[in-house]
């Protein structure tokens, strides 16, 4: 979804990074007990989920951010996306690396419910940084770009949780970090004697379906916001750098220009009737040749072994 300064969220994860098994367990339990996360049922939720009270609140948040469960008045319903991604016909045990890349995209592209994460992957471009410098940049972004005020402690919590969730060095984050599935994507690293790095690289093993999923969601979201006006193309530069308020797959997946082009060409090979790259008047654009698929359909086709 597009960044909207009137709809932002920071720090609702209770400082708990997403853990292995949380999303799957959440989807499974909500499928059986729709009111499991209702405020009056927190004791029950702690028992059935096997986690503490604050962790229940964190899982409630991560289920919303990823869109795997829709809540209304504390009552949840597993979304079609949730069923396709983590249902019996999907990848409930996160055995496919593509699943993790897609979960990452769902978080980093959610400007409304995970604004700090959206900022980091779509706006913060420093390849190497110290946490205090990144925090200052986040505070500047919130104040100058969004024109809002958020507590220093809230923004610090958001950044700290992000770094613990994506950094592969468990000892820096303590016990809470040991089960963070997104650390394996190596999108954030630690550098001894300096701080952190988040480098754009070629990433030749990025699963084409992850990029396809991101592109289809991007096209679908834009069409939905624009009503009947269907935008059939996106400049490759916009996919690489963003800058229009939409999440940029190249930035979210930390790809260099060559890495993005390589991945896009792989997507074109896997989905030949869906996209086309054209250079018109010096502007390289990605065109969609068919109406955008629903994200759940992209996943269903992939997990069933169909590439259409």
Automatic annotation (TrEMBL):
State the superkingdom.
Bacteria
**Which segments constitute the DUF4007 domain?**
10-303
What is the name of the protein in this document? DUF4007 family protein
Source organism of the structure: Thiothrix winogradskyi
């Amino acid at each position: 979804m597009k960044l909207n300064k009137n709809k932002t969220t920071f720090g609702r994860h209770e400082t708990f990074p997403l853990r292995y098994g949380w999303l799957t367990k959440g989807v499974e339990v909500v499928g059986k007990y729709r009111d499991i996360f209702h405020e009056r049922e927190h004791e029950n939720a702690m028992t059935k989920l096997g986690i503490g009270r604050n962790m229940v609140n964190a899982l409630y948040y991560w289920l919303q951010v990823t869109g795997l469960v829709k809540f209304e008045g504390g009552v949840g319903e597993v979304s079609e996306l949730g069923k396709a991604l983590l249902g019996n016909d999907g990848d409930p045990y996160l055995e496919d690396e593509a699943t993790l890349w897609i979960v990452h995209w769902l978080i980093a592209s959610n400007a409304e419910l995970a604004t700090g994460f959206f900022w980091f992957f779509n706006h913060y471009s420093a390849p190497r940084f110290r946490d205090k410098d990144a925090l200052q940049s986040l505070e500047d972004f919130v104040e100058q770009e969004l024109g809002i005020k958020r507590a220093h402690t809230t923004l610090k919590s958001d950044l700290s949780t992000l770094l613990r969730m994506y950094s592969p060095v468990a000892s820096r984050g303590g016990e809470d970090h040991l089960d963070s599935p997104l650390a394996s994507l190596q999108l954030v690293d630690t550098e001894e004697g300096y701080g952190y790095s988040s480098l754009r690289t070629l990433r030749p093993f990025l699963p084409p379906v992850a990029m396809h999923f991101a592109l289809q969601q991007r096209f679908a979201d834009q069409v939905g916001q624009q009503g009947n006006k269907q935008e059939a193309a996106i400049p490759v530069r916009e996919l690489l750098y963003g800058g229009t308020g939409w999440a940029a797959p190249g930035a979210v997946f930390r790809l260099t220009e060559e890495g993005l082009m390589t991945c896009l060409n792989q997507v074109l090979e896997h989905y030949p009737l869906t996209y086309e790259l054209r250079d018109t008047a010096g502007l390289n654009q990605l065109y969609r040749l068919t109406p955008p698929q629903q994200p759940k359909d992209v996943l269903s086709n992939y997990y069933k072994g169909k590439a259409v």
